[in-house]
Structures are given as structure tokens and as C-alpha cells.
Amino acid sequence: MFRCAITAIRNIRPIFFQHYAARIIYNQPKSFSTLNTRINPIVYTGCSNNSNLSLLNNKQVLDVSNNLMVPARTVTKFSLKKGKRKTVKAAVKRFLRLNWGVWIRTKIGRHKKLWKKSQPQKRRLRQHVFVNSTQTVLLDKMVTKYWKRPKYYVDDPYEPYHTREEFHITRRKPRESY
Questions:
Q1: What is the mean pLDDT of each successive set of 10 residues along the chain, which is 178 residues long?
Q2: Which secondary-structure segment (H or E) carries 104?
Q3: Which positions carry the signal peptide feature in this UniProt record (predicted)?
């Protein structure tokens, strides 16, 4: 019964009120001088025969679409000098790759409006979190082999996190028997 109702609703053609909309628009009082009360009824019927009404010719739509900034995660596949891939610098600045292959990042909003956040919330914001597997694969594609190799720094605060002994695949030391 429900399926029949859905198929019946899908087969109904849209109703256009061209003459009704035209009567409403043209019979309005013309006391609003700032508003354009004489709108072409083609807009309401959905017909696009008139080229002046298309979105491509609308200056306001074009101005908005030109000012949009689309985020780009592009990788230079071939450099002009040596023909090698290049690292996306934003990935290296915002994320850190641990030696066992996972990427970590800081929490979002950790410096914003700290005056209204409680002490436990501030403590949680100072912590780092792992990125998910999709983002890990994406970040691995965005960097070169240099950034995937282990790095050794003096007094590295992330030193205990570069190894993962609790997981059997990444374990380096033999497991103690219980």
C-alpha cells in the first residue's frame, strides 16, 4: 500500500500556476516603490526560455560565486626542476606523524574563549588526538618519504608515543610473560 502511494506521488506532474501567479503580481498595490512588483511569471513556472533570467547572466550570482574560496588539498605531482613530488606544507605544520605511522593533531579551538571554559575542558583541549584512517591515508599522500621516516629530536616530548608496544604488529620488544 505504501509503495503504491509513493509511486503515485512520484508520477504526479508538477502544477504550474502561471496565470494565477501573474494575476497576483499584477494586481498588487504599487505603494512599495523600492520593491520591484512587476516580476515576470516565467520565474514562478520554472521555464527558462528567457536568457536574461538564467543564473549565468545574473551579476549577483556571479559575484558571489567568484568570491567563494574552495579549499584545495592539491599535491604537486611533478616539480618543474627535478620532476619529483612536493610536500604540502600545511600538512607538516598542522599534523605530526609518529614513527609507527599514525598522524596526530591538536584539538580544535584550544586557544579560543578560554575565559569561559572550565579547567577540565582546558586540560582536554591541550591533549592531542589521532586522525582517522581516511585522513591518515590522505596525509601520507600529501607528504614525501622524508616526512614518513623516523625523526629524532633532542628532548622530544613525543618520544614515548613513537613506539606502540601494546599492539602485536608494531611491537619491538618481546612481550613479558605473565
A1: 61 54 47 47 48 62 68 80 91 94 93 96 95 95 94 92 83 76
A2: strand 103-106
A3: none
